[in-house]
Amino acid sequence: MFNKAIAKIKEWFPAPEVHAHCDGPCGVYDPSAARINAEAVLSMTKKILDLQPPAAGDQNAMATYQNTITRYIQIKEEQAQLTKEELLILWTDYFKPEHLQKYPDLHDTFWKAAKLCSACKVEVSLEHANQLMESVQKIHQMFWATKSRDVAWYKAS
Amino acid sequence: MFNKAIAKIKEWFPAPEVHAHCDGPCGVYDPSAARINAEAVLSMTKKILDLQPPAAGDQNAMATYQNTITRYIQIKEEQAQLTKEELLILWTDYFKPEHLQKYPDLHDTFWKAAKLCSACKVEVSLEHANQLMESVQKIHQMFWATKSRDVAWYKAS
Amino acid sequence: MFNKAIAKIKEWFPAPEVHAHCDGPCGVYDPSAARINAEAVLSMTKKILDLQPPAAGDQNAMATYQNTITRYIQIKEEQAQLTKEELLILWTDYFKPEHLQKYPDLHDTFWKAAKLCSACKVEVSLEHANQLMESVQKIHQMFWATKSRDVAWYKAS
Amino acid sequence: MFNKAIAKIKEWFPAPEVHAHCDGPCGVYDPSAARINAEAVLSMTKKILDLQPPAAGDQNAMATYQNTITRYIQIKEEQAQLTKEELLILWTDYFKPEHLQKYPDLHDTFWKAAKLCSACKVEVSLEHANQLMESVQKIHQMFWATKSRDVAWYKAS
Amino acid sequence: MFNKAIAKIKEWFPAPEVHAHCDGPCGVYDPSAARINAEAVLSMTKKILDLQPPAAGDQNAMATYQNTITRYIQIKEEQAQLTKEELLILWTDYFKPEHLQKYPDLHDTFWKAAKLCSACKVEVSLEHANQLMESVQKIHQMFWATKSRDVAWYKAS
Amino acid sequence: MFNKAIAKIKEWFPAPEVHAHCDGPCGVYDPSAARINAEAVLSMTKKILDLQPPAAGDQNAMATYQNTITRYIQIKEEQAQLTKEELLILWTDYFKPEHLQKYPDLHDTFWKAAKLCSACKVEVSLEHANQLMESVQKIHQMFWATKSRDVAWYKAS
Q1: Is the separation of the CB atoms in F117 and E18 below 8 Å?
Q2: Where are the alpha helices (DSSP H) in chain B?
Q3: Average pLDDT over chain A, rounded to whole?
Q4: Is residue D153 situated within a structural domain?
Q5: Total number of domains in chain D
Q6: In this predicted model, what pLDDT tens digit does every residue of F13-39 receive, in sequence order?
Q7: B81-102 per-position pLDDT tens digit
Q8: Cβ separation of F62 and B53 shorter than 8 Å?
Q9: Do A121 and C71 touch (CB under 8 A)?
Q10: Nearest to residue B1, comparing CAs of A104, A113, A109?
Q11: Does the interface predicted TM-score (ipTM) exceed 0.95?
Q12: Residue E154 maps to a domain
C-alpha cells in the first residue's frame, strides 16, 4: 500500500524542489525550532500548575494572579501552535515519498505529534507536554538520519 | 497496520474533545474556508499567466506591471498558505482514528493536498492549481460524509 | 442625497476594478467566510456561559478552568475580529456605488454588523451573537442577489 | 432617513461603551496612527515611480532593482492596509449614532477613504495617494471636533 | 570608547540609507506611534486594577468578569509589545552613529524603555506604566531634536 | 560610565524576573532560533544573485522568473525580520545589567547585528549576510558563556 501511495505521490510531484523551514526554497530545515517551542510549552504547563490562586477578596492580588495566569496560558497556546507549525512544515515540505518508504510510520508520527500540540493547548497536562518533547526528539532523530548527520539533542532550559 | 496505528493513537488520546476550524473547541468545521482560498489560488495563477510585460524603456508601465504582478504573487502565496492551514486543521483536529479506519487514504489525501499548496506557491502552474481544487473537493465530500450531511459543492467565482 | 454621494464616489473611482475576499483582484468573494467565523462567536459565547467555576481552594481545577475560559475568550475575540474583517472587505471592496442605489441601507447594515462584532467581543451576550448571525445572513442574501445567484444559506454546526 | 437609522442603531446598542484605537476599551483614539501610515503610502508611491529599471542583461543590477521595487510595493501594500484598518476602527468603534447626526456624510467619508486605501494598493497613483492624505486630514478634523479639542495637523516627513 | 564604537559601526555601514517607521525606506518616522500604544498600556493597567471580582458563586458575573479582565490583559500585552517594536525601529533604523555621539545615553535610554515594555507586560504596575510614558516622551524629544523640529507632545486620552 | 548606567537600570528593575525567547517567563532562550533565520537570509541572498532573468518577450518565462524572485525576496525579508526579533528578545529580556559589566560592548554588538538585519533586507549583499552569520555566532558564544554551558555551534544547511 505504501508503494502505491508513493507511486501516486511521485506521479504528482515528478521533480520536487528542496523546500525549507521557512516554507520556501532556502534549504534550511532544523527541528531545533520545534524543540525550542516545545520546551516553552512544557515550562508554561509547569508554571500554570504551580501558580497559587489568591485569597478571595484581595483585589490587587487577583489582578496580579489573572495577569500572570492569562499570560502563561497565552504563551502556552502560542508556543504549542508554533510547535505544530514547525513540525508540519517538516512533514509537508521536507519529507518526501522516499522517506516514507524508509519510515512507514512517518504519517502517524506527525499526526500524533500534531494532535499532542492540540492536546497541550486544550489541557494543562504535564504528561502530554512531556510526550510532546519525546515526539519532537523522535522527529529530530529521524530528520538528521535522513541527512546522515549526527546532530546532538540538547535542551536550552 | 492501520489498526495498530489506530490503537496507538487511541491510547494516546482516550477522550478526544471536538475541536474546530479555529483550532479551538467551537465545533464549527467547514471545508468552505479552504475552498474559498483555493479558488483564489487558481484565479491568481490565471492572472499571473495572462499579464503582459511592458515594452522595455517605459518606466511608468514597468512600475505598474511590477506593482500588479508582485501583488498577484503575494496573494497567491498567502492564499495557498491559508488553504494549507485550513486543510491541516481538518487533518490534525477534526479527523480522528475512527475516520482513518473508514478512509485508509486519509493521510495520503492530506499529504498530497498540502504538497499541492506548496507547489502552487513555488510554481505558476494551472495544472497544479486545478488539482488543488480537486483535492479540496474530495476532502469536502469526505468531510460531510463523516457527518452524514449532504452539503452541495459550489464555487464563488 | 444618495445620488449625490454616488456621483461623488463615481467621480473618484471612474473604473473600479473587481476586488475580492483576499482584498486583492481575485474575484472570489463569498460571505461564507464571515458566516463560519460568526458561528464560532456564537458557539464560544454559549460555552463561556455554560462553564462552571471550580470550588475555591482546588488549585488544579482552577488551572484547568482558567485555561479553558481564557481560550474560549481568546477564540471568541479572534473570531469576532475575523467576522468584522471579512464583512468590511465586502463593504469596502465588493459593494460599489450602483449597489448603494439598490440597497440604500447598505452603509447602516454594515455599520450595525461591525458594531455587533465589537459588542460580541466586549460582552458575553447570546442575544448579540444571535443578532450577528442574522446580520451575516442578511448580508449573504444581499450579496448573492447582486450576482443573481441563489446560494443556499446553511450552518456548519 | 438618518434619524430612522440612528434610532435603529441606538435600539441595538443602548449603552455603547467607549472603545479605542486598539479595538479595545482603552479610550485612546488618535487619527495620527492612520496619518503616519498614509504618509508612508505616499512616500512609497513616489519612490516606485522614481525607480529606474536597469539595462537588460545586467543580472546584478536586476537583482538589486527587483529587491528594491518588491520591497517598496510590499511596504505600500502593508501601509495602505494599516491605514484602512486604523480608519475603520474609528468608523466602527469610535463614531456613534450621535456623531452621524452631526456629520451626515460620515459613512460616505469613510467608505471613500477605505476605497482610496484599496486604490492605492492596486495602482501606483500619486493622485490617489494625495487624495488619501486629504481624506485622513478631513477625518482628523472631524475626530478632534467631536472631542472639542484643537490638535494641530502635521506631517512627519 | 564611543568614538571607537562609532568608527566601527561607520566602517560596517559606510552609506546608511534613511529607513523609516515601517522598517522600510519611506522616511516617515514618528514617535507618536509608540506614544499611542504606551497610552493604551497605561489605560489598561488602570482598568485592570480597578476591576472588581464578582462574588463567588455567580456564574454569569464570573463569565463577564473573566471576559473583561482577559481582554484588558491581552490588550495591555499587545500594546506593550507594539510600543517596544515601535521604539526598537527607531533605535535600530533611525538613530545612527552620529546621533550616538550627541546622545551618549542613547543605548541605555532604549534598553531601559524596552525593559519597561516587558515589565508592563509581566506586572500590573501603574508606576512602570507611568515611567514608560516618560521614557517615550524623552525619546520624542530626542527624536525631534535630531530633526531640529519642534513638534508638541500631547496625549490622545 | 557603565557602572552608572548599571546602577540606574538596577534601580529601575530591582528584581528582574527571568524572561525567555517567547518574550515570556518560560526561561527557554536559545540563539539557535536566530541562527536558523540568519542561515535562511544567507541562502536566499545567494539564490537571488544566482537567478538569471529570462529573455525579453517570453511571457511564460517572465511569469516564472517574477514568481521565483518575488518569493526569494519576501522570504529574505521575513527571515531577516525574524532574525532581528529573535536577537532583540535576547537583548531586551535575557541580558541584564550584570551581563553588561562583563560584556561592555553588549549594546554595540546588538545594535550592529540589528542594523545588519536591516541591511540584509535593503540590499542583496553576500558580504552583509555573511557578517550577520558572524554576529549571530558571536552572540551564541556570549549567550552560552553567561550560562557556563558549552553548546556547539553548527549550521543546518
Answers
A1: no
A2: 2-12, 32-50, 59-89, 97-102, 106-122, 126-146
A3: 89
A4: no
A5: 1
A6: 443 344 456 556 667 999 999 999 999
A7: 999 999 999 999 999 999 999 9
A8: yes
A9: yes
A10: A104
A11: no
A12: no
